[in-house]
Write a structure and sequence with these properties.
- Belongs to the RecN family.
- The protein contains 19 helices and 15 strands.
- By secondary structure, the chain is an alpha/beta fold.
- The chain has a domain of 152 residues.
- Strands 2-1-4-5-6-7 form a six-stranded antiparallel beta sheet, with helices on one face. Strands 8-12-13-3-14-15 form a six-stranded mixed beta sheet, sandwiched between helices.
- It is elongated.
- The two termini are 23 Å apart.
């Protein structure tokens, strides 16, 4: 719901700050006083087109801020959260227009594209004006209103999701079918490559182990020779390390007297002799047991050669061959009777089409039943609005090719026949501005209990009517306000007398500059304004009495 509108340096308004509440708000004033300022400013806040002429003469920029309470507007909260612009239950739309015609848009203080204002604005407010694009002329609005009236929004969402699933699968199938030759060639290549890698059967870490074994086997002669020589030097030769240690010990053991200072040295030599003897034994056993099989070396080198050759063939390093093998295998599984196969996609597509048809058929049946009821109720409202000859038809146009569509199996369009005997045609081609406003009013009254748009704006909905019909229009607008929020520009006292809140627009000149003033009227002010609307400039006591009676009756009628 709109809670506040602030306008600075827009048109002839220097500064306007308005508070709004639930219910019906009427905007009245003399012709040319600036009543359109409020509606035009709201249109700009909703992402409407702007130009340099919108900026007040002498100012650098125009600044428009509209504040909404979205606590009860789930769709708006979801949109804000999805775009990371949520700020509790408040939504502030701001538009700044510079005198060169450029503009900037903000949502909750964050800069945003103008399209974001339009998208979010369409959820927050619906403006019905004779002079600008109206949502009532769009088929998607017709479908939305009918689905809300029928109470099938959830079923519509399920149908749309089923269509998305079906559409994605069809795209994948089409791509596979269009690239069938390439896919088959790829499949054959994958089979050949995987078979080669299967035969190689390379295990993770095997190549590193083979390379170490090859290094040892290729130096077997050197290893044996050096190990044998080391054994000789340790224990086998006449002047081996073991013999030299024995001789050193004998020299110390043959000392004529015991020398305590040499005791530790003698112990060290004894330990060294033992270590040298054990090392010699180990070397001897190693030489005796060492396997320098040239046949094994040939096997290892042949295996490594096959690994290196396979890596070069695929232009990768040998270490990555096992991982590469796994990736090719996974791709082959996907293409060869896997998730992406033509046969499987065709089966999925058929099942998804069946699911879509089931949901869409339920949706169509509900729409057909609701359309008849909607037409009847709107016809009743049109009769009250002095349009009894107008025939309203909710037309369901079934898709000829029966091709699935996001919104179901048919298009929804509101048609009217302005005169008896004439065929029903689209609203935009039949209804005039005033007629369209009244038709829109009738529709909104009927769907008010189910509509998700919280704020409705009507610009001169009472054009071309008067008397009792004008009073009916007032009652209908008031009833809409009882269930939400309605703003209307009116020239009729019968309408203004029934509103919850009354804004009076006036114009004055000061220091050769023109200004527009908008003020909220109290009860006395409202009676005076109703009298002005009834009697013009010269207001008599009779006019004021009539205005007071009309105001009192207009307010009492709804209690």
């Amino acid at each position: 719901m709109l809670t506040q509108l602030t306008v600075s340096n827009y048109a002839i308004a220097e500064r306007v700050e308005l508070q709004f509440g639930k219910g019906m708000t009427a905007l009245t004033g003399e012709t040319g006083a600036g009543k359109s300022i409020v509606l035009d400013a709201l249109g700009l806040a909703m992402g409407g087109r702007a130009d340099a002429g919108a900026v007040r003469h002498g100012a650098k920029r125009a600044d428009i801020t509209a504040t909404f309470d979205v606590s009860r507007i789930a769709e708006a909260r979801q949109w804000l959260e999805a775009h990371e612009l949520d700020d509790d239950n408040q939504c502030i739309l701001r538009r700044v227009i510079s005198k060169d015609g450029r503009s900037r848009a903000y949502i909750n203080g964050q800069p945003c594209p103008l399209t974001h204002l339009k998208d979010l604005g369409s959820v927050l407010m619906d403006i019905h004006s004779q002079h600008q694009h109206q949502s009532l002329l769009r088929k998607e609005t017709h479908r939305k209103l009918l689905d809300e009236f029928a109470g099938v929004e959830s079923l519509g969402d399920q149908t749309r999701e089923a269509w998305k699933t079906w559409h994605k699968t069809r795209q994948r199938l089409t791509e596979r079918q269009q690239n069938a030759d390439e896919a088959e060639a790829r499949l054959q290549l994958l089979r050949y490559q995987v078979e080669e890698l299967d035969r190689l059967a390379l295990e993770t870490g095997e190549q590193e182990q083979l390379e170490k074994e090859q290094e040892q086997l290729s130096h077997a002669d050197t290893v044996l020779h050096n190990s044998h020589q080391a054994n000789l030097l340790c224990t086998e030769d006449d002047n081996s390390a073991a013999d030299l240690l024995r001789q050193a010990l004998q020299q110390l053991e043959q000392l004529p007297v015991e020398i305590p200072a040499l005791a530790e040295t003698i112990q060290m030599l004894n330990e060294a002799q033992i270590q040298i003897t054990e090392a010699g034994d180990n070397l001897r056993h190693f030489v005796e047991d060492y396997d320098a099989d040239p046949t094994r070396l040939a096997e290892v080198e042949e295996r490594l050669s096959a690994i290196y050759q396979m890596a070069r063939k695929h232009r990768i390093t040998p270490e990555t061959l096992p991982e590469f093998h796994q990736s090719l295998n996974a791709e082959l599984t996907s293409l060869d009777d896997g998730e992406g196969s033509v046969e499987k996609l065709e089966a999925e597509l058929e099942e998804q089409r069946r699911r879509f048809n089931e949901l869409a058929s339920q949706l169509s049946e509900s729409r057909q039943q609701a359309a008849a009821s909607l037409d009847q109720k709107i016809a009743e409202e049109l009769a009250q609005l002095s349009m009894p000859a107008v025939q309203f038809v909710t037309h369901l146009n079934r898709n000829r090719d029966a091709e699935p569509a996001p919104h179901g199996l048919e298009d929804v369009e509101f048609l009217v026949s302005a005169n008896p005997g004439q065929p029903a045609r689209p609203l935009a081609k039949v209804a005039s501005g005033g007629e369209l406003s009244r038709i829109s009013l009738a529709i909104q009254v009927v769907v008010a209990q189910t509509s998700t748009t919280p704020t409705l704006v009507f610009d001169e909905v009472d054009v071309g009517i008067g008397g009792g019909t004008a009073e009916v229009v007032g009652r209908l607008l008031r009833s809409l306000g009882d269930n939400g929020q309605v703003l209307c520009v009116t020239h009729l006292a019968q309408v203004a007398a029934q509103c919850h809140q009354h804004l009076f627009v006036s114009k004055f000149t000061e220091a050769d500059a023109t200004y527009s003033r908008i003020e909220s009227l109290d009860d006395d002010g409202r009676v005076s304004e109703v009298a002005r609307m009834l009697g013009g400039v010269d207001m008599t006591e009779h006019t004021i009495a009539h205005a007071h009676e009309m105001f009192t009756k207009g307010q009492a009628t709804h209690h």
